[in-house]
Amino acid sequence: xxxxEIFSLLGGVGLFLLGMTVMSSGLRNACGNNLQVILERxxxxxxxxxxxxxxxxVLIQSSSATDVMVIGFVNxxxxxxxxxxxxxxxxxxxxxxxxxxxxxxxxxYTPLLLFGGAVMxxxxxxxxxxxxxxxxxxxxxxxxxxxxxxxxIAPLQHSQGFVQxxxxxxxxxxxxxxxxxxxxxLQSSSSSTVIFQTFAVQGLLDYHxxxxxxIGAAIGSVTPNILASLTTNRNGKRTALLNLTxxxxxxxxxxxxIGIFPRMLDLIQGLSPGDVGRQIANTHTIFAIxxxxxxxxxxxxxxxxxxxxxxxxxxxxxxxxERKLVYMTGNTSSLAPQVAMNQxxxxxxxxxxxxxxxxxxxxxxxxxxxxxxxxxxRSREETVNILNQVIADAMAGLSRMDLSRQNLRxxxxxxxxxxxxxxxxxxxxxIVEYAEALREGHAVxxxxxxxxxxxxxxxxxxxxxxxxxxxxxGDFGRLTELEALEARVDEQEGSLVQSHVxxxxxxxxxxxxxxxxxxxxxxxxxxxxHAVNIAYTLHERALAxxxxxxxxxxxADPSI
Length: 560
Fold this sequence. Notes:
With 560 residues, the chain is mostly helical. Helices cover 78% and strands 0% of the residues. It has helices at residues 3-31, 34-40, 46-60, 63-75, 81-94, 97-102, 110-123, 127-153, 160-168, 172-186, 189-201, 207-220, 223-229, 234-260, 263-270, 276-295, 299-309, 314-322, 337-367, 371-399, 405-440, 447-473, 479-505, 511-535, 540-544. Helix 5 (81-94) runs antiparallel to helix 16.
């Protein structure tokens, strides 16, 4: 094989991979965010999850993209491992469609596809038409890449060295390993399968060897998912390991079936006599379906196996429990309105305590920073976000009960309080970011500034805790105590900024640290405002009012 032919082969592979990327991008853009919304809402029914994974992968023509999305959702606690494994299995079926498409010989039409796609993409302004043009252009590149590869590898059938190399792949074990390595290198099972198809069509590979290469390709396709999981939490890593485990079991299962029932390959070949490209595509699809059908009933066992390899830590179990509803469980419509209201109040209080703990931990992280403390705050912020959503949904169900006007008002006010509590945790995350900004900028805050922030942080934290006590117990006699704290926090906001300006005037403060100082003062003051809103939620003044903003210092905008 000449150097020019090698360059031609590499160019064909590159054009094919680019076509896959362009086509996948066009499909994703045409579908917008709908795909992610559909995937995010995959139900606990594993059969529906399989169908969703399959449909998603058919649409975007990339099982890796689907799997990486799944890892992201599991990492964000938006999807469980039980849902994830169903989607992953479905993606393994959906990815076989690429080989089915490329089994058609469309080389004569690729110039037309390229031209038509380019015209739509470059000269038509309507976005949906541009996306369709991107898809068509990607198809054209894909088939043109295959055409170039076929022409480049044709001389290899006369190469003694290459024929010898291919003959070594007749050993099933070596063929599977080569399929794993080759696909890991390309990071796409669809791409490697199509290349194996091309070699077979040109007579360089026999069908039986190609079968084992395709089996290995399924394992190698997990490489992008493993790389994507390196920066995720333990559940994200478990998701990538689920995919790897599924495909290893799949490879063992299929090799065993071929060994016991060798005639099954003859039956698959009989579906498309004389068309080895189609035979490989059919094998790829049928094997994926068989693997899913056999392994789907054992998903719980596969999950347990993965959890033994990456054990569930005690803090993970505690976090999972923290993110569940404790009081607003079951069918609230069967409860007396007052009982349901009391349960809602307890649930919101529990969320408030979690957010307050996160705010306290963020302040500790600011004054005594460690990466572990920062990560803990971010993890609990995600917990508060999840509780915000599930409690808001439960409150919506509560509002549909047959409630009096006053109780409807209570539901409305408590729903707003959930938002105030969620904002407290948002400020906690901000405070961690300020601590990190100081370290990244190598800025040092003066001892005087640190002392001032500590005093204001203590008062703001006391204000939050008192407000939650008032919300939980209805002891409005403590509002005087709360308002005194709020007045002190407001007074400190002004005096601390003035102190900061004086320090800047005499160069006693690092400018970068000064920016963080002002941001901290603002966040602490806003935490006090949210605390006042929480404390006044169930006060008679709030329940009788038609506007939000009950306390003397309540913010006009609850989104602050």
